[in-house]
Amino acid sequence: MRQYTIELQPLSAQDLSAAARLCALAMCDNPLHIKVFGPGAVKRQRRLTRLFTGLLPYIARKGELMGAYADGQLVGVLGRLRPGLCQPSWRDVLTLTPALLSSNSPLGLIKTLRWLASWARLDPAEPHWHLGPLAVAPHWQRQGMGRLLMKHAIKDAAGVGLYLETDKLSNMHFYQRLGFKITATPTLLATPTWLMQFR
To answer: Are 104 and 52 in contact (CB under 8 A)?
Structure first.
């Protein structure tokens, strides 16, 4: 079996487009994404790519985007927002609006806003790193890449808590194995979700 050289490093600006495509592909079948962006996988992936194309530069400005590289090829992405910068300002909302408008139908946009507003209201008051997205290329999943990215985030948190949301049961179990605890289980758009913290 071939051995790869795996490196974690901050995502470069030239890799943002590849990262948006990777996130869209890796997260295409998330239950909330199906509910919000539609049942057709090809259209859903295209819409998610547009969303992440706008979202990832925002995360890079407000926090950090880490890339996992196998022999120089991007195979994983982890975003995190710095403590105190989880909630977008009105300027941020204006910046993100084109990506939101271009990534969905009017009804889908309404669903997106309901979903994001619900999670925003539940954001913890205490300072924390807000994690997401975490995405690993499908052919690299279940090979420890997500764990490697998460371990980096935990180690680099410098004693500040970590927080994330997920809508996949398998992801919830993955985060539990890393030491995250469930703090709430809201149902959004008739979809179970889990809010989790690491302290």
So the answer is: no
Q: Which residues contact 52 (CB under 8 A, 6 or more apart)?
A: 19, 20, 21, 23, 24, 133
- Dihedral-angle region of residue 115 (phi above 0 means left; psi in -120 to 50 means alpha; beta otherwise): alpha
Whichever domain contains 71, its CATH number is: 3.40.630.30
pTM recorded for the entire structure: 0.95
Measured on CA atoms in the order 117, 79, 162, 125, is the torsion positive or negative? Answer: negative
| 86 CB-near residues (< 8 Å, 6+ apart) | 120, 123, 128, 130, 163
Within-domain flag for 1: no
pLDDT tens digit sequence for 126-179? 999 999 999 999 999 999 999 999 999 999 998 899 999 999 999 999 999 999
What is the domain count for the chain?
Answer: 1
Domain boundaries, position 40 = 6-198
pLDDT of residue 1: 58
